[in-house]
Design a protein that fits this description.
- With 174 residues, this protein is α/β, with parallel strands linked by helices.
- It is 34% helix and 28% strand.
- It has a six-stranded mixed β-sheet with strand order 2-3-1-4-7-8, sandwiched between helices. A two-stranded antiparallel ribbon has the order 5-6.
- The longest helix has 18 residues.
- The two termini are 16 Å apart.
- The structure holds guanosine-5'-diphosphate.
- Guanosine-5'-diphosphate binds next to α1.
- The site of guanosine-5'-diphosphate has 19 residues, from α1.
C-alpha cells in the first residue's frame, strides 16, 4: 500500500476546505468552519494500485502573516495551492506560497521541483466578478513548473477529481 501525503495551501476563504470536501465526499459544503489544522484520510485505488491518501488542510495562511509552511512543506509529497479567481489578493498570496515551496523543495542539482504542485483557481462560477484572468494563472503555473486548473467547488466534482488524480499519479512517479 502506497502512502501519499498532500497539503492544501492558500488564503483563508479561497475555498481549500470546499475543494477538499468536494473531492472526498462529492458534495459541496457551503459553510465549513475550520480554524484548526485538519488531517484527512482516504483509501483510494488508482491505476489498480491501493493508496492511503492523507491530506493536510492547515488553518489558512493569510497574505500578511508568514505562511505556516514549515510543517507541511517538508512533510508533503505534493501540494495543491488554491486561490479564488474573484480575489486578486489570494492570487498574490498563492504566488508567495509557490515561491516558498520552490525555495524549500527544489532539487539544487537538477534545479527542478522535488514534488509535484497543482495551482488551482477556485470559484470559477464567479467568473462574472473575476479579478484574475485564467491566462495569469496558467502563466504563474508555468513559471513555477506546476500544473494548473480552474475549478468550481460549488458546481463541479469532475474537475476536482481530475486534478487530485493527476497530482497523485505524479506523486507516485516521483
Ligand atoms: P478556506 O478558508 O480556503 O478553507 O475556504 P472555505 O472552503 O471555507 O470556503 C470559503 C467560502 O467560499 C465559503 O463560504 C464557501 O462556501 C465559499 N466557496 C468555496 N468554494 C466555492 C466555489 O467554488 N464557488 C463559490 N461561489 N463559493 C465557494
Amino acid at each position: 500500500m502506497n502512502d501519499i501525503k498532500l497539503a492544501l495551501l492558500g488564503s483563508e476563504g479561497a475555498g481549500k476546505s470546499a475543494v477538499l470536501v468536494r473531492f472526498l465526499t462529492r458534495r459541496f459544503i457551503g459553510e465549513y468552519a475550520s480554524n484548526t489544522n485538519s488531517l484527512y484520510h482516504k483509501r483510494l485505488s488508482i491505476d489498480g494500485r491501493q493508496l492511503n491518501l492523507e491530506v493536510f488542510d492547515p488553518c489558512s495562511q493569510s497574505s500578511e502573516t508568514r505562511c505556516i509552511l514549515e510543517e507541511p512543506v517538508d512533510w508533503a509529497d505534493g501540494f495543491v495551492v488554491v486561490y479564488n479567481i474573484s480575489d486578486r489578493t489570494s492570487f498574490i498570496n498563492a504566488e508567495n506560497i509557490l515561491r516558498q515551496i520552490r525555495e524549500a523543495r527544489v532539487d539544487s542539482c537538477k534545479g527542478e521541483m522535488e514534488v509535484p504542485v497543482c495551482l488551482v483557481g477556485n470559484k470559477q462560477d464567479l467568473c462574472h466578478v473575476r479579478q484574475v484572468y485564467e491566462e495569469e494563472g496558467r502563466c504563474l503555473a508555468q513559471e513555477n513548473h506546476c500544473t494548473f486548473q480552474e475549478v468550481s467547488a460549488a458546481e463541479s466534482y469532475q474537475d476536482i477529481a481530475n486534478l487530485f488524480t493527476r497530482l497523485i499519479r505524479q506523486t507516485m512517479e516521483h
